[in-house]
Amino acid sequence: MFTGIITGVGRIAAVHALGSSSTHGKRLTIECPAGYLNDVGLGDSIALNGACMTVTSLDTAKSQFTIDISAESLSKTAGLTQIGQVNLEKALRANDRLGGHLVSGHVDGVGTVTHFAQAGESWELRVLAPQELGKFLAYKGSLTVNGVSLTVNRIQDLQTGCEASINLIPHTVENTALGSLTTGAPVNLEIDLIARYVERMLNTQPIQLKDPQ
Length: 213
Description:
Number of domains: 2
Strand order of the largest sheet: 4-3-7-1-2-6-5
CATH class of the largest domain: Mainly Beta
Structural class: mainly beta
CATH topology of the largest domain: Elongation Factor Tu (Ef-tu), domain 3
Number of helices: 3
Number of strands: 13
CATH architecture of the largest domain: Beta Barrel
């Protein structure tokens, strides 16, 4: 579990294919800020742009680690196949502050940046989410974009999907990789965890229990 509060901005430094066919995944080498891996061990979970990954090797001296990502995960995420910046978050501890919202690290869909520009001292980010995710987006609700817990300020249902408008304060732009987004860029989206279960409960027929014989 995660909170959507980014704890470091890393960099995918190398991408290696784990096989020659499209059914094979990739091995990524991620460089981190100095000291970031001091409390990380093999097998620990770290979210990369909102996607939960497992540390398969690490070098604390070089402040880098590797993860293996399957072809299935690659087909459901964005921004994990090329060299560049990534948002990092270590897994939530039971005694940590929940500064954002409950985030599972399981990407629900890939959205598209439709607008990203400064608005006063802040920045307005608009993301077009896939149509099937629209029902989970709500005014003042939570949405995870590339691993960052954000609050939705406005939604608009369109034929092509649901556009969510989000305000980014300067701190978020300066301390995450969201500042490098451009119009048309794909982003990983995770809907609110509670909304996922509410939708399931409302659309499932109640179980009819048989009377004991």
